[in-house]
Structure formats: C-alpha cells, structure tokens
Amino acid sequence: MAATPAAPSGTRLDALLLTVALTTVSVSGPLAAATAAPALAIAFWRNALAVAGLAPVMALRRRLRAELAATSRRTVLLSLASGAALAAHFGLWLPSLHLTSVASSVALVTTTPVWTTLLLRMTGHRPPAAVWGGAAIAFAGVLVLTGVDLSLSAEALAGDALALGGGIAAAGYVLIGAEVRRTTSTTTYTFLCYGATAALLLVVCLLAGASLGAGYAGETWLKLLALTATAQLLGHSLINRVVRGLGPSITSTALLLETPGAALIAAVWLGQLPPAAAYPALALILLGLALVIRAERGVTPERATVDAPLDERAEPVR
C-alpha cells in the first residue's frame, strides 16, 4: 500500500498562498487598465463591493458586532482619515494607468516604503542609516523613469506623477492604519476604512460626473467583481495570512515581484511593452525598495510599517 503523502508543512503552505497572493495583486493594475469604466468609478466600486462583501461577516459575527458598537470616537475618526488617504491613493493611482504604462505606474505607486520611512522620520523616528541608501537608489530610479516617460509624452509624465502621488497617499494610509490596528481587529478596521473610502469616492465621482454604471457592459461588471475579489479581498487577505509564518521581511521582499508580474501580464494581455530605457529605471526602483525593506528588518514592530502588506495591522492597498 502506497504511503499517504505528507501534508504540506506550514512554510510550504504559506509559500503557496504567497504565490497566489502575488498573482492576484499583480493582476490589479492590468485588470483596472482593461476595465471600460472611468478610473474614479473603478476606485469607488472596488471599495464599495468590498464593503458589501464584508457586511455579512460583520453582521453574523457577534464579536465583530460588539467591537463595532464599542468603537471609540478616536478610532472612528482615525479610520475616516485612513479612508481619506486610501481614497486619495486610488483616486490618483488608477487614473495613472490610462496615462502611462502599467509597468511604470505600478513601479511608482509601490514606492510607498520610501515615503513611509520619510514620514516616520518627520514624526521623530530614526530609521536605520541603510534605509536612506535604499531610498536614494529608489528615488534615482524614479528620476530616470520619469525622464524616460517625459521623452515619450507629457501625458506619460503626468501618469507618473499621479502614480507617485498614489504611493505617497498610501504611506499616510499605512501609518494611520497601523495606529488604528493597535486596538481594533483587521475586519472591523477594514470595514470602517473601506466604507469611508467608498463614501468619499462616491462624492468625488458625482462631482466629477463619472458614470457609476450607466452604459456599463456585462464584461465591465465582471471585471469590477474580479478586481474586488482578487486584489481587494483575496490577495490582501492572503498576504495578511502568510506574514505571520514567513515574516514581514520575506513577505514584503516577495511583494516586489508585483512590478515585473504586472508588467508581464500587461505585456501579454494588453500588449504594453515599456521602452528599453525604462528597464534600468525599474530595476533601480526595485533594488532601492529591497534595500529599504531589508534595512527595516531589525526595527521594532511599531516602526516596521514600510509598506501596507508588511504588517497585518494595516490592509494592503493595491
């Protein structure tokens, strides 16, 4: 009788789940770029649909209902502020996907660790010296990439600026979220934050005249649902699941593969190939971010928030 195969170890299972998470997160940029809806409407729907998915969980679990009812005014206000930062992130990044290449947009929006480090420094924390070297390399890559895109068109440069702004906004979201998560569960915080994000984006969509559904084809709704299920819920949840077993350093370093992953998907699916001169810039950005994350490995948990996926105290953003 053949021996029963051993069950996968915790590490192997975490590695498998991380692979699934990387795939679902990497599809976010290309899928959003391929969705025939206004960028602001995409931003609204991915958050609104996520809230709709979380609502039954909040309603059916007694512990979560009790926690939500007992939420302090401070927690609510911080969650609203975090939601505003997340709305800014999506409101800036998603439009950039229609102006510049998916590869450039994703690379620039994932510079969040650099901006988080700078914000931490401004609030009195002292990141390791090696962090500044990594930040300098990543910023040099940003300068090279924006120079390459400027040579292509002013529109591509504008897309770069929006993606970079999205990365900066995400840093604020991460830091505020980390503070809320000291006393609040991930599910309750996410419900409040995504709810605030959806409400703010709804107002922005109405003011901007962005169509929220009129004339959408069935394919568009399917893509919105797929975007919510993959990047907004599945990918982020799995990242928060594996960070306990694999640790923040391995998890966050692996997440740097989102940029080449998104670029590959965009190349195959959308036919988007970055210019040859962009590849060295993308490599510099990834190298700089890797050095920042590596240098942050030894800091205390309160100061280890260098990207949304690094710490389950704050939900990832893409």
Automatic annotation (TrEMBL):
Q: Does the keyword Membrane apply?
A: yes
- Looking at the UniProt entry, the stretches that span the membrane are 76-94, 100-120, 129-150, 156-176, 188-214, 276-293
- Could you confirm whether the keyword tRNA processing appears in this record? no
Extent of the signal sequence: none
Q: Which GO terms describe its cellular component?
A: membrane
* Alphabetically ordered keywords of this record: Membrane, Transmembrane, Transmembrane helix
Q: Which PANTHER family does its entry note?
A: ACYL-MALONYL CONDENSING ENZYME-RELATED, EAMA DOMAIN-CONTAINING PROTEIN
Q: What is this protein called?
A: DMT family transporter
